[in-house]
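Researcher: Next entry: Proteasome activator complex subunit 4 C-terminal domain-containing protein (Volvox carteri f. nagariensis).
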Amino acid sequence: MTRTGPELQKFAREFHATLLVVRSLSLNTHADGSVASAAAVSAGGGGTSGGSSSGGSGAAMLAAALDALSAAAVVEVPWSARAAALSYAQTLWFRHAPLLTPEQLRNLQEVVAARLQDAKAEVRTLAAATLSGLLRGTAPEDVTALRNRLLEKAAALFGGGGGSRRRRGGDAGPAAAAAAASSPQQLQLEKLGCVAGLSALLMSCPYDVPAWLPPVLMALVRAAGGAERDGAIRGEAGRALGEFRRTHEPESLEDLRAKMDPDDWDSFTQATGTASYFA
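Model: Predicted structure:
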């Protein structure tokens, strides 16, 4: 099929942006020094003489790969490049997490978390899946900080506090303040990003019921509830809750029930369609 001029220009832009990530896909810190040095140069990390240690070359390669990933994950590039960056982030973390410094791990998490409220649904989904994997190897204090930020944001966007019966009318104060501060489109992306982040927290513990789980679930219940008028947001929150329900056995759900307020448990079972089963 013959491409027109504009189509060729678009293809060239997408290819150039995606290349930032693809150039680093050959990253292999177990390669010999000459290969490592060449890869570092091709990724923009600069070269060294043949006497460089393989450890130094590996560190330079990792730094160059993280730089390329960050460049390809920004919103200005085509969404296909952003998706490629997130896919590569999974590979980079899985293969080289022990070699990354704590600061590099935090930077990688920030790059991924920034794409949770991407305008493209495919990128948001991939960001949530990538973040869930990163959280399993992230320092507990960093996970706690991220979780607290997401819960605070969820409280501002969807309301929070009090029993489920008091919530059914909607906690309009924080949500109204957030709506007044953002355009409708930006507010929608913030809500979708918050739901994606909460979903990543759930996916990071697909079978267990840690003590921090109930507040995360209730934030998603509120996002999926009738007080939220945006069907896309309710749908995303509902899918996250449904996936949680699918991956947890009855014994785990009974453990969850023991950790939740009765009103919150009632809201959760109604949101996941399991109220009659646990009655």
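Model: Note for the record: The CA atoms of residues 82 and 278 lie 42 Å apart.
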